[in-house]
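We store chain and fold; thus.
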Amino acid sequence: MIRIAERRKRNEYDDQSTDSNFLSILGLVLSGVFLYIQISSIYVMIDNHRFMETAVEVEAVCTDSWFEETYHNDDDGPGYTTKTYYAAVSYQYEGIQYSNPRITVSKNVGVGGTVTIYVSPTDPSDSRKIVDSDFTYIMTSLVFIPFTLVGLVFLIEGVRFLWKNKKQKKEELPVKDFNMYH
């Protein structure tokens, strides 16, 4: 009878330990994903700022243009489609011809059309069309802060639960002497 009661207690602790492990893992995954999104958004913003500090404005000629459609499903109503426009461009910097096979543009440029791009004077093959503003990157970071915090709460609670259960398990479960010759 004592062994059955001890097994039940151990099973309860194991269940709580499994729950706390799940909370810890869920918290780690959630906070990790959302933190990654925040950090990458901030990185892109900083990288664009550094690039634009020395970038030179150049007119480029479109050699190819296309768009990609993305369908977004909406559970509450009909979905919608967004178009992202791209262009392959050719440009000259200090008398040397360069090309960029894929830049994002705000509208369909059409072959032969011109688009303003920015070129790095230290590496003229690095050309960009800055489409998003700093506001976009800042808002992306701010939007994910609550999700990151929720993930961290799950992580902290899971670890706290696990630590508390291990401590209780040590206090409540007596160590048995299984010596048969008493």
